[in-house]
Amino acid sequence: MKQRELIRISKFLSLVLRHRPEQIGLSLDQHGWAEVDELIRCANRHGLPLSRAQLEQVVAENDKQRFAFSADGRRIRANQGHSLPVDLQLTPAQPPPVLYHGTAERFVESIKRDGLLPGKRQYVHLSQDETTALTVGQRHGRPVVLTVHAAAMTAAGYVFYVSANGVWLTKQVPARFIEFP
Ligand code: HQG
Q: Where are the membrane-spanning stretches (predicted)?
């Protein structure tokens, strides 16, 4: 499968597995899982030809490992990024001393005031390295990388999770834990 086709299917999966399964008549369980057979049926019915083999290739080769199959291979879900209120059953984890958040310059004033908020998603997304954060920030405009004092947050009782694909998640980051460039 060509790179372009992989990306197209990945974007489609992000939409239906994180945000809007109802758009293709799909349902997710409370932990975010979709039945693979049902996903394929719904996709095909909505004009996106999709096979099990293609899904396997997307899961295996996705640049950010955005999706995972269940152990028995019968279900699939997104590893993070949901706006739907699914419970990924993540266990709290101890983050490294600092994490990074990439955002756009135009959001900085508001972040200084309110801290980092999850917006439409369930969690604020944080990266372990600055390069990844920069790429995330570039999606929104002229990028800025913020340093988040994660260890200080856990000491203060804030809880962190790490998704199956290595994205750090937390409900919010108060401004006092953020270092601005
Ligand atoms: C900003 C992609 C104003 C926040 C990425 C961000 C990530 C505020 C935007 C994942 C704010 C939300 C998530 C405040 C936060 N005032 N703006 N108080 N608090 N913001 O897309 O982190 O490719 O929902 O800085 O790689 O950019 O889809 O979050 O700029 O891991 O797999 O509000 O999405 O992953 O934007 O990206 P988003 P994000 P995928």
A: none
3-state helix vs strand vs coil in the chain, percent to 5 = 40, 20, 40
**Domain ranges, residue 19:** 3-78
ipTM of the complex: 0.96
Answer yes or no: is 51 within a domain: yes
Atom of ligand 1 nearest to the CA of 102: 25
What pLDDT, in 10s, does the model give residues 67-119? 999 999 999 999 999 999 999 999 999 999 999 999 999 999 999 999 999 99
Residue 28: CATH number of its domain:
1.10.10.970
Helix H or strand E segment including 11: helix 3-14
Tokens (6 digits) for 75: 């279900």
Backbone torsions φ then ψ of 149, nearest 5 degrees: -80, 85
How far away, in angstroms, is 161 Cα from ligand 1 center?
16
Q: Is 71 exposed, middle or buried (0-12, 13-18, 19+ CB in 10 A)?
A: exposed
Ligand 1 atom nearest to 132, measured from its CA: 26
Same domain, 61 and 115: no
